Amino acid sequence: MSDVNPIDEGQNEAQIAPWRATVLTLFPDMFPGPLGTTLAGRALENGLWSLDTLHIRDFAEGKHRNVDDTPAGGGAGMVLRPDVLARAIDHATGEGDQRPRILLSPRGKPLTQEKVRELKDADGVILLCGRFEGVDQRVIDGRQLEEISIGDYILSGGELGAMVLMDAVVRLLPGVMGKVASGEDESFESGLLEYPHYTRPTEWEGRDIPEILTSGHHGNIAKWRHEQSVALTKERRPDLYEAWEREKE
Ligand code: SAH
Q: Which domains are present in the chain?
């Protein structure tokens, strides 16, 4: 084929396969959405990761292609059917596919930077986006879905959660951020929140940049930043601070 993507040409063959995300959703048009722009979008274009969406409705049967039904036992709303979801998941999961199968769910384990790093080291992810009241428990059990939450609040669907997860992973993929911003220094990476940042102008609305930062003394600057991190974490996130203290011991 003569239609060679110029970006692919420069890549050597020994390069590991790109991180591969497959999203199962009732709203495939939402993707790539914000992930098609800036850092993640460029990385997507450059083949550093890939994103496929599967429309859950394509796996429904019958004249009406129903994907949901009323909850057994009664109650409000609709529940996504296990048979339809299982067909979609099985389709997404190729032979030998070792990617984690994740259901975005407010009942899941909270997404943390540690989990994000773990997912970065996998071949990719299969992400199932719930809608309505959620999904039939039997497909969670039967397909061993790992439930992950992006926070203690309820979204109207898993799609934004899937985007949050992918955004957090993609920026850590090799070649995405470049050398300078390796992500090592960020909040959570050390178990602490990040220290405050400043840039020019040196004086703004009567406020100065802390003198130490313009001193040029790298040792003192590092020490100051660390102290700021510790103080901020203690004040804002006592839970993280205690975990960090315990870790130190
Ligand atoms: N009835 C459910 C909420 C359903 S919200 C309950 O009370 O637990 C509909 C869908 O949105 C969910 O199936 C899930 O895929 C997604 N969702 C909602 N909140 C979320 C969160 N905090 N994290 C990840 N996904 C979430």
A: 13-170 (3.40.1280.10), 185-248 (1.10.1270.20)
